[in-house]
Amino acid sequence: MPIKILIRSLFINTISTNRFLLIPSLHLLSFVSKANRSFLFNVDRNPVLKAVLKKTMYNQFCAGETEKETKTCVRQLKDLGFRGVILTYAKETVLDNKTSVFHHSNGVDGLSSSEGVEAKFDNNIEDWRIGTLKTLDLIDEGDILAIKMSGAGPSVVDAFTKGKLPPQQMLDTLDEIAITCKERRIQIIVDAESQHFQKGIACTTLELMRKFNHAGFAVIYNTYQAYLKGTPAVLAQHLAEASKNGFTLGLKLVRGAYILSEDRSLIHDTKKNTDDAYNGIAYGALCQHIGDFGGDGPGAQPFPSVNLFLASHNRESVLTAHRLHRQRLIARLPTVPVAFGQLQGMSDEVSFSLLREHGEAENPPDVFKCSTWGSMGECVGYLVRRAVENRDAVLRTNDEYTALKSEAKRRLRSLLYV
Ligand SMILES: Cc1cc2nc3c(=O)[nH]c(=O)nc-3n(C[C@H](O)[C@H](O)[C@H](O)COP(=O)(O)OP(=O)(O)OC[C@H]3O[C@@H](n4cnc5c(N)ncnc54)[C@H](O)[C@@H]3O)c2cc1C
């Protein structure tokens, strides 16, 4: 780890391991993330505020404001030993469920209907298309593009809210992106979002998987949120589709990020239930046995082709899954390909532990760092949302903090010795 990154990580971890520093910092970040602040608190206009945030939070968690900065960061992450990056564009559309107003991370708000949107050509979809293709230009073969479909604006979200496929322009855009990715051997992860739109997102992703995921290789991954009580039923339906139509199911598993805004009754009652659900699905996929799929009882069906992606900062979940996968490979038992992902700047200790988990004759597991790129204003909004989603992991960074401190002491001692 270069010295600059070590010092920055120490600084950020000092804040994040201390509740009394972390909570006010998040409030401050949330305050400056609102676009129409006065000059003093506007991250895009106040150069001093911008410089401080850039050297600290931004560089720790984001890839870059420009294409050049982003490419450099992607290369640095790979030099640290990661298999690749998952890159996403920071511009997001966030629907305020209470007011039905969209907040764009660039500060321009709009109403949640297709009113005013040109029926033939939707500029929001076009902007999203251009941003996504630009993101694609910044990564290489073996990397992953993450997309948040609601970012394409009101007409797409309207369709998703009704549980429908998005307008044809969006379907054409998704086809164009998937064809380009397939040619360049780049995979696409479709993020799971709030339950308000998730049915439409899952339908759209299923169609993409049917079209593009063949010969055991998932170009497209759908995201399954383990904290939802309804996820096993959705997964069983998608496994049945994959089995019937002979495509590879891209199964990206997360716990779920919308616990604060989602209807609480849809989510498991306790954290332990969510943990059990997450670990149960990961175990089932790795052993090729989920429900009737891969079983041998009455009603059993063959287990379809699956590519598994475990996105989590939970050390126990990812290390247990990796060890199970390795044991099954050694014992020549059936299993599925698996990769792992954590956010850039978070749970590095978990990511590096995974990378170290291999014998002399084996390759390290496929570990990806997920990062975002975009202007300071766009990224600050993104950072606030990720910090809230991952607050359990953020406050659980003691192991990482201890490791960073001992590494800093070791380097200081060797410097004094010289
Ligand atoms: C690479 C990557 C991609 C991601 N993509 C998505 C995505 O597309 N969509 C999405 O929704 N999220 C996504 N997330 C976020 C993810 O869903 C989690 O919010 C986050 O990773 C924290 O969970 P964890 O597995 O790291 O582990 P932990 O920190 O052990 O678990 C925290 C999670 O447990 C659950 N939980 C906490 N308290 C309770 C409770 N009382 N009852 C029930 N459940 C509880 C919540 O889901 C919470 O986020 C992504 C995360 C990563 C690292």
TrEMBL record:
Could you tell me the keywords of this UniProt record? Answer: FAD, Flavoprotein, Oxidoreductase, Proline metabolism
Return one Gene Ontology term, BP aspect: L-proline catabolic process to L-glutamate
Which Gene3D superfamilies does this entry report, sorted A to Z?
Answer: 3.20.20.220
GO CC, sorted alphabetically, is: mitochondrion
Q: Which terms in the Gene Ontology molecular function aspect does this entry carry?
A: FAD binding; proline dehydrogenase activity
Which cofactors, by name? FAD
Q: Does the keyword RNA-binding apply?
A: no
Decide whether keyword Hydrolase is in the record. Answer: no
Q: Please report which protein family the annotation says this sequence is part of.
A: Belongs to the proline oxidase family.
What is this protein's record name? Proline dehydrogenase
Q: Look up and give the organism this protein is from.
A: Melanomma pulvis-pyrius CBS 109.77
Source organism phylogeny: Eukaryota, Fungi, Dikarya, Ascomycota, Pezizomycotina
